[in-house]
Amino acid sequence: MFKKILIANRGEIACRVIKTARKMGIGTVAVYSDADRNALHVQMADEAVHIGPPPANQSYIVIDKIMAAIRHTGAEAVHPGYGFLSENMKFAEALEKEGVTFVGPPSPAIEAMGDKITSKKIAMEAGVNTVPGYMGLIADAEEAVKISREIGYPVMIKASAGGGGKGMRIAWNDEEAAEGFQSSKNEAASSFGDDRIFIEKFVTQPRHIEIQVLADKHGNCVYLHERECSIQRRNQKVIEEAPSPFLDEATRKAMGEQACALARAVGYTSAGTVEFIVDGQKNFYFLEMNTRLQVEHPVTELITGVDLVEQMIRVAAGEKLPFAQKDLKINGWAIESRLYAEDPYRGFLPSIGRLSRYRPPAEAADTRGVVRNDTGVYEGGEISMYYDPMIAKLCTWAPTRAQSIEGMRQALDEFEVEGIGHNLPFLSAVMDHPRFVEGAMTTAFIAEEYPEGFAGVELGEDILRRVAASAAAMHRVAEIRRARISGRMDNHERHVGEDWVVSLQGQSFPLTIEADREGATVRFGDGGEYRVSSDWVPGQSLARLDVNGTRVVLKVGKIPSGFRLRIRGADLKVHVRTPRQAELAGLMPEKLPPDTSRFLLCPMPGLIVRINVEEGQEVQEGQALCTVEAMKMENILRAEKKAVVRRIAAIAGQSLKVDDVIMEFE
User: Fold this and answer.
1) CA–CA separation, 424 vs 421, rounded Å?
2) How many separate helices (H) and strands (E) can be counted in the chain?
């Protein structure tokens, strides 16, 4: 077995590999850019080597710099994680030439399967069902439009060397095909150093289901069942689960056997994933094979009990797989929620900055459930604009899907993140969405259910009343504390009233509170009654309460005459007032937000790639105005209505903050 492994990656996956290597007694080497000097993976590793400036194309994907780090530290093997150099044949060849083991497949398999065009051709020859498309190289946008017409819209434009949703667009017409081709080409070049693009038919109403395979160097290949990855945004997975709620055993077996057959056809070894699109009749079509570890591998580990990183290392060291296909059973249900540094209220655009608060739920594992959080950040750390916006992968396991979903709801409610925009509210909203709960989702779920974007959650009447009762009980505790601090009387409880009005989500609830040593009884004016108990004290940012026997977890912030409470994707301003105060508050005028309709504001911190219009030009609704790049993704900003450009305040190459003015309209 190896004595020292270098991890050619960063963030949570580097931390994940370090954990398993440590468990196996293997030393670890981290590499880091200027932006990652204080990163968690650097702190966790036994050794760390600086490799250059923040941009990945000047550090993490520069093969010579990684090779120099290997020579400097004497690492015997390299784990590439995912992204960066994980599917780069030249990197694998450089390692082979150096006599260093690549913890992944041999370079010919990377060449065959890592290239999306080649892999589809091989799959077709192997008899695997594939999506119709054009596998040849595409010269320019004009040819892309011609090919798209021949295939028939809608089409998927994809980077040949792509992954993680980078360099991928859906086009429904000629204009989108031309624009999508150029943006995909640009993203592919900056993310992978390979700008080749191919086009295939976009299957409507699809489910994205993938098979995890594991093969050793002794001819053994198994599949570790499937993962459902249909909850996607901009072709990037957001929530995954294992197994799929859609597949039956026969389809699962057929997909698994095809995946293994494809792996054997290219001499594949290590852990890889064969991805399929599955339609409503359970017909499945090969999409691509990822020859490296997938982001969502933890859910497979949770239902099989197999440490995939450990098996990758053991396979690379020449060991045989310790199990056969018959040994791999599905145990329970696992769900993964990807926590991203992106603002769901601004169209999921990237957010950067300092994590002023980062408190994940406590990890735990027993026969009733598991909470696991794979992360690469810490409180006080920075979220950089240079890399993928994923902060953490929160996973839950339970014996049933319903229990796993409920575990995830509770874990998301307990996850505290402040200082940046993040998608925790959206993840919570999905966990409560009827379509997700029923397992009736497709890759169009987000577009269909949130066509105007995510605007938060409206709580149902039952949970709204539980929150109101909780807020009243918490307010009473806060008032008692104020009475103690003021020293008004020794029997301070006597000065805290029983009659209150709780206002939240556009509703007001008159209620009374009767307290004792065990908690408080909250009676609503219409007769509802709730028993509330908790050990919460003012100043705590998380409140865990029992409300009529139901566990309620609230993120708590203080506002005048009440609280900011967040639960299940809802962000509520909750006012707790005396009846007279509530009467007077109802007479106050509503403060309206400023009118910014005449301005195009930068929706995220990013770089202006191009300005498409000029001052004095008339623009039409939907016309491209400019392109902003952030976290390796290009975002085209379009006109919301017909207008004339009065002033352009930004230039190409300029870095802007959120809400900086790009242009003004007449």
Assistant:
1) 9
2) 17, 40
pLDDT one-digit tens code per residue, 425-441: 999 999 999 999 999 99
Residues 6+ apart with CB under 8 A from 268: 105, 109, 113, 213, 215, 221, 262, 289, 291
DSSP secondary structure string, 213-224?
EEE-TTS-EEEE
Strands 624-630 and 633-638: antiparallel
Tell me the angle at which helices 11-23 and 308-316 cross, rounded to the nearest 10 degrees: 70
At residue 632 the predicted structure's pLDDT band, cuts being 50, 70 and 90, is low
Could you give the domains of the chain? Answer: 4-103 (3.40.50.20), 132-201 (3.30.1490.20), 204-329 (3.30.470.20), 332-456 (3.30.470.20), 461-585 (3.30.700.30), 599-665 (2.40.50.100)
Omega before residue 593 within 30° of 0, cis: no
Strands 507-516 and 270-278: unpaired
Three-state SS for 60?
coil
pTM score = 0.84
Q: What is the pLDDT of residues 155-174, one digit of tens each?
A: 999 888 766 677 889 999 99
Which of 5-9, 258-262, 269-273, 589-593 is predicted with the least confidence, judged by mean pLDDT?
Answer: 589-593
Neighbouring C-beta atoms of residue 64, cutoff 10 Å: 9
CB neighbour class for 195 (10 Å; exposed up to 12, middle 13-18, buried from 19): middle
Write down the pLDDT at residue 347: 81
The residues annotated as belonging to the active site are 288
User: What is the pLDDT at residue 614?
Assistant: 95
**Closest-CA residue to 103 (of 239, 218, 245, 6):** 6
**Dist. CA 29–CA 16, nearest whole Å:** 13
Kindly compute the dihedral angle of the four CA atoms of residues 65, 66, 67, 68, in this order, to the nearest 10 degrees. 50
Pick the range with the lowest mean pLDDT from 134-148, 151-165, 425-439, 495-509: 151-165
Residue 208: the pLDDT is 96
Q: CB 116: neighbour CB atoms within 10 A?
A: 24
